[in-house]
């Protein structure tokens, strides 16, 4: 067989998945399908709510929230559809090109989301700690520029990962100990010493996750200090509730990523659990956290529902 363009003789990979027990596979299918459908519907509802409500759309915080929901819908679609098909079928294989595509979009969307969450923390920092210059600092064209920077950062991060992976030779075995393609499992299959590549990738993914996480914690630490004297008024309580929701999302996303990527690559069941968390569970929790703890979003959803049910009365 002629080797592939990248020098690899492997044309497809076998995904070992989460379990070989048929009853457990069917149970997982139901759970993943429920999470995936809830993620799509919940995040789509947030996007539509923000888009049709002028007050929310003009607010940088909700503009960024709508973009976060778009990323979550796309991120959840990277692994879930393939996983659902594999849970129903007897075999679980993915082509070399499909594997590289999964890897690319996982890191592109995941990196963009991390940068966006950092941007959202900066937005809250300016709004709470420097309210007099907030309107000038977070003007719409500047928000668009910052958002484009987040997407560009995610693209650069993902392209770097992909270039490092496709340069590796793969000559077998071709079994990936996961339910989707990701850097740690793919690199371990290279038929060459990939220690330097592992270090580069840990420096890339791991340090990005850690640095963004530390910046976020620092920003919210300053915010909490600023809010100490405002707990008695409504504004302080409202800001604290918003920041609490952001911190919950940040913890759900960053902690598993730091655990997986900020250490030498290895195979363990905890890696799979962490992978499930940030590819399947987190996209469905984000809309729940933001809507249940945010009065403005809930009121906008009520207005949206009222407008859909009684269009002639509005």
Which labels suit this protein?
disordered C terminus; single chain; 3 strands; Rhopdopsin 7-helix transmembrane proteins; 3-stranded mixed beta sheet
Task: Give a concise summary.
The protein has 314 residues and is mainly alpha-helical. It has helices at residues 22-52, 54-57, 60-88, 96-129, 134-137, 140-166, 183-188, 195-227, 234-261, 269-292, 295-309, and strands at 12-15, 93-95, 175-176. The protein has a three-stranded mixed beta sheet.
CATH architecture: Up-down Bundle
The low-confidence parts are: 1-7, 309-314
Q: Fraction of residues in helices?
A: over 70%
Structural class: mainly alpha
Task: Characterize the structure shown.
With 314 residues, the chain is mainly α. The chain contains 11 helices and 3 strands. The chain has helices at 22-52, 54-57, 60-88, 96-129, 134-137, 140-166, 183-188, 195-227, 234-261, 269-292, 295-309, and strands at residues 12-15, 93-95, 175-176. The radius of gyration is 21 Å and the shape is globular. The model is unreliable at 1-7 and 309-314 (pLDDT under 50). Helix 6 (140-166) runs antiparallel to helix 8 (195-227) and helix 8 runs antiparallel to helix 9.
Q: How are the elements arranged and paired?
A:
Blueprint: E1 12-15, H1 22-52, H2 54-57, H3 60-88, E2 93-95, H4 96-129, H5 134-137, H6 140-166, E3 175-176, H7 183-188, H8 195-227, H9 234-261, H10 269-292, H11 295-309
Parallel strand pairs: 1-3
Antiparallel strand pairs: 1-2
Helix pairs in contact: 1-3, 1-10, 1-11, 3-4, 3-10, 4-6, 4-8, 4-9, 6-8, 8-9, 9-10
């Amino acid at each position: 067989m002629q080797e592939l363009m990248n020098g690899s003789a492997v044309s497809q990979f076998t995904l070992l998945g989460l379990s070989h027990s048929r009853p457990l596979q069917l149970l997982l299918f139901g759970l993943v399908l429920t999470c995936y459908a809830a993620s799509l519907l919940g995040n789509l509802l947030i996007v539509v709510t923000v888009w049709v409500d002028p007050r929310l759309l003009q607010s940088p915080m909700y503009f960024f929230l709508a973009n976060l929901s778009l990323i979550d819908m796309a991120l959840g679609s990277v692994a879930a559809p393939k996983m659902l098909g594999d849970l129903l079928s007897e075999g679980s294989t993915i082509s070399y090109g499909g594997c590289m595509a999964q890897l690319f979009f996982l890191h592109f969307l995941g990196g963009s989301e991390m940068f966006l969450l950092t941007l959202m923390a900066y937005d809250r920092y300016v709004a709470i700690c420097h309210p007099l210059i907030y309107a000038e600092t977070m003007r719409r064209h500047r928000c668009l520029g910052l958002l484009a920077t987040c997407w560009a950062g995610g693209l650069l991060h993902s392209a770097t990962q992909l270039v490092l992976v496709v340069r590796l030779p793969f000559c077998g075995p071709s079994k990936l100990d996961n339910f989707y393609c990701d850097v740690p499992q793919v690199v371990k299959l290279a038929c060459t010493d990939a220690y330097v590549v592992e270090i580069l990738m840990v420096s890339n993914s791991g340090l990005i996750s850690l640095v963004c996480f530390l910046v976020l914690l620092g920003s919210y630490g300053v915010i909490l200090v600023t809010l100490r004297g405002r707990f008695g008024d409504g504004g302080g309580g409202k800001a604290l509730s918003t920041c609490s929701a952001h911190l919950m999302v940040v913890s759900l996303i960053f902690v598993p990523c730091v655990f997986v990527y900020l250490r030498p690559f290895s195979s363990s069941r905890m890696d799979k659990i962490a992978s499930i968390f940030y590819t399947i569970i987190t996209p469905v929790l984000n809309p729940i956290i933001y809507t249940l703890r945010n009065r403005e979003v809930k009121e906008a959803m009520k207005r949206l529902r009222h407008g859909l049910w009684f269009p002639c009365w509005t």
